[in-house]
Amino acid sequence: MQPAPSQAFDGKAFVRTLTTSPGVYRYFDEAGELLYVGKAGNLKKRVSSYFLKPRMEPRIAAMVAQIARCEITITRTEGEALLLESQLIKALKPRYNILLRDDKSYPYIYLSGNEEYPRLAFHRGARNQPGRYFGPFPSAFAVRESLNLMQKLFKVRQCEDSFFRNRSRPCLQYQIGRCTGPCVGLITTDDYRSDVRHVEMFLEGRSGAVIDELVTSMEQASASLNFERAAAVRDQVATLRKLHAQNHVQGATADMDVVACRIESGIACVSVLFFRNGISLGTRDFFPRLPLDAEPADVLAQFIAQYYLDRPVPREIILGEDIADMGILGEMLAQQSGHAVDIKTRVRGERAQFLQMAERNAQASLTSRIASRQTLGTRFEDLQNLLGLDEPPRRIECFDISHTRGEATVASCVVFGPEGPEKSHYRRFNIAGITPGDDYAAMHQALTRRFRKVAEGEGVRPDVLLIDGGTGQVNQALDVLRDLGITGIEIIGVAKGPGRRAGEETLILVSAGREIHPGSTSPALHLVAAVRDESHRFAISGHRKRREKARERSVLEDVQGVGARRRTALLKAFGGLAGVEAAGVEELMQVKGIDRGLAERIYDALHA
């Protein structure tokens, strides 16, 4: 029996049933795909504008022609409707909404708590550990620069706890004057706490108070004839004064973000300048998706609503355009953050200069993005011609293997599309169960794990599969795809050329059964090399993290009955792990707290 044809959506009849309450409306097409999410202070009035107007802009008419169903959610206030709209857009990603594509969590500086000697660290992710979090910062670079500065100024430790607990002598950071050696008791708890307090004050923006305290300390040291200490504090004060003069924003005592937008060639760039406690934290650029023609004011309104949905909200937001519902948006952000939020569009003095700076940054980033996209489009078209494809590839994947003499083998998979790298689709595979150093087995395992999902109908198929390696590695890809019954994917091996020089790579075209040398002027080879290099970088960084994690973890941590104190006692008694490994059971028993049974377990664990 044939299904009955679906009836066209009668928007006019639907509008007659609507309430005048505030709420959110959602449009769906015939296949059930979400087209658009919108909010309204008066649902009946807002939704009727789509169906009762005699003439509409072509872009709106194109969306309305696809509407097959409309769903309504009533809210108590227009502010609640605005919040729900932002949540739905971020979660459901409707086709015709402006969408902020920013899937990265923001980095923070973390100061650990509940410890005798707290540590400073880079942090990204859930903030559920005891201690304080300072930020968010616009980039990982900004955090690392700040941590580097903290290490020079206040010398608070930044090492991992496992490293800190097992030291028997100070590390290199102490030797170069960037740590005070708390791991081996070279600084008192009170003096260390004083350094930690200065760090907190500085990160809170109270650098002036820190300078005042240090000046007093310098004078006291000088009065007691401790001139070496006085000179060290003097240099510290000088560095702080210089930094304070460079980064302090006059008049910006509250937290402030300055936001500007530029649109060109169907691409939007939103540039944000971050200021916290009068300190400039740098800038960050965003490129929201524009499914419909939009004005900068439309983009800014959606950006503010989506961006601050799950992030700390500053007390002041300066915009380059007047936006709709600015008062309602400010009330929503104030309710969410628990403090007043002042959204301004007309500013003077230094704030006007900051806004001009944000606008210049947005224009420069947009120009660079357009040029990069045009170059990338040319490279994709050249790769299409090189491979003889009917259309340019939409998804390119590349696999690479990284290890150190077979240790901690990691395979990487990076993904490129017409707009460049799609980092949310990157994957790493920790390789296990193979002969160390067997790159063919590692590649076979990684490809099998990746394409098994494709064979089961779950994963996304690439158009082109790049393999960093020669014929042997390419054969692994052929075997995996053949075993899984997957066809229609172009496989290309990327073999290094003579002397391993860039631009002289050999491309192994599996479907054509031949090898080619495109040459250093080929746009297609530039694209392939860029994807290959990114895969190589991603594999190496994953391998290093895995190797360092394995090396930082002591084998003694896995021995039942050996806690932090006994582990430290063992390492001190024998001068390190190598000495513990060389010791026999009787020698291990000489360490306080180690009986024969425990000594035998330690010996067995180290000689398994």
TrEMBL record:
GO biological process: nucleotide-excision repair; SOS response
Database matches in Pfam families: GIY-YIG, HHH_5, UVR, UvrC_RNaseH, UvrC_RNaseH_dom
UvrC family homology region profile domain mapped to chain residues: 258-481
GO cellular component, one term: cytoplasm
Domain GIY-YIG: 20-98
Functional summary from the UniProt entry: The UvrABC repair system catalyzes the recognition and processing of DNA lesions. UvrC both incises the 5' and 3' sides of the lesion. The N-terminal half is responsible for the 3' incision and the C-terminal half is responsible for the 5' incision.
Name of the featured protein: UvrABC system protein C
Gene that this sequence comes from: uvrC
